[in-house]
Amino acid sequence: MRAIDITEQHPMVDESTDALEAAKLMASRSLPGLVIRGDGKHPYTVLPASQVLRFVIPTYVQENPALARVYDEKASDLMATKLAGRTVGEVMPPRRELAEIPRVNDDDTLLEVCAVMASFHSPIVVVGHGEQIVGTITIRRLLEVLFPDAGPDSEQAPA
Amino acid sequence: MRAIDITEQHPMVDESTDALEAAKLMASRSLPGLVIRGDGKHPYTVLPASQVLRFVIPTYVQENPALARVYDEKASDLMATKLAGRTVGEVMPPRRELAEIPRVNDDDTLLEVCAVMASFHSPIVVVGHGEQIVGTITIRRLLEVLFPDAGPDSEQAPA
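^ Those are the sequences you sent over. The predicted structure of the assembly is below.
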């Protein structure tokens, strides 16, 4: 089995996408991260969900999580609303800080997909065919294929 | 809303757990990571799914992903089987390399949960009450609560 056999078409977002909408998109699809298209054809960025969370929390809280305590309960619940109107490009980490993106080739083996996810600490990888991006692979899909007997129902099944 | 309100009881594994079984457990529950109990009461370790993948790939491939290419397709598909019999303690990263664990208090606000997940790059956090661990919070659960209107069905629902 090759990378292309487990590649899926998940929605991607652009730098101009509303940041809150991007986070909601990730939530609605239960995605473990987002692929962000850059201006050109090639510059993709892949952010794990934990980093997409940065889209919805104030910068000073990111820099010092202890400051989250100064928010009262209600303010915390409302944070998502307050951040509306900013774009992904405005809230994502500076481009120069982003590591090289996790990418596999469509004919890579599943072992190679595992190795790239592990080395990039990324739950989602971009699948390329030459210069083209043909889709993405999530870690959940990879695990489903690696452990077909470990589905949600198998625990209850008789041995 | 506080951390305790969205805390769940996900299974944890021990250092003596079979590594392959640990990875399968994560797959079967669609968990974004695993909490690993140490020997004592306190030393927990939290690994995101991408790092649990290291449980099922050979060490030399982790060190040099390019070496995954030397595996032929069938060998790659069989890798999980070949790793059976090793424990989590044997395959997890050396303890000294593990960063401080992502942990929140049961009365923390959701903003604090966000901030801890973001700063630790972790899709799962341990929830503590004093010295006790009372459960875990996954990023999926957090996103569900932050964006209740962004459920899987809401996209199809009439506005």
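Helices of chain A lie at 19-28, 49-52, 59-63, 73-82, 88-91, 110-120, 139-146. The beta strands of chain A are 13-14, 33-37, 44-48, 103-105, 124-129, 132-138.

Shout if you want it in another format.
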